[in-house]
Design a protein that fits this description.
There is one protein chain. By secondary structure, the chain is an alpha+beta fold. A three-stranded mixed beta sheet has the order 2-1-3. Helix 1 runs parallel beside helix 2. The radius of gyration is 15 Å and the shape is globular. About 10% of the residues are buried.
């Protein structure tokens, strides 16, 4: 799998946040709900809590981890940006031992 930029949203924080979360979590049937990472840059606890509450409304996860973005990500995205990182059900079927076997040189 690969990471791509889907689009960029503009507007008020609440409008953009709701729109992004709704779009990303729209197809809940294919989301592995065990773990979610909310990765953010330059954001206060009030906004982080707002994001967590919206995520719970659309697609609750068993575990949610808050992660400050690395300096490389933060300088490219800027303050106030965030992303939701999770596995899709099809991707979650591959175990670590299976993936390490396919990446081992013969």
């Amino acid at each position: 799998s690969k990471m791509v930029v889907g689009d960029m949203k503009m507007g008020s924080f609440k409008h953009v946040t709701r729109s992004y979360i709704r779009k990303v979590l729209m197809d809940t049937r294919n989301i592995d709900r065990r773990i979610l990472f909310i990765t953010y840059a330059g954001m206060d606890s009030t906004r982080i809590q707002y994001i967590q509450n919206l995520v719970k409304q659309y697609c609750p996860f068993e575990r949610v981890y808050l992660q400050k973005a690395s300096s490389a990500i933060a300088c490219n995205c800027g303050p106030g940006s965030f992303g939701l990182l999770f596995m899709k059900k099809n991707d979650a079927l591959i175990t670590f031992s299976e993936s390490s076997k396919t990446n081992m040189p013969e």
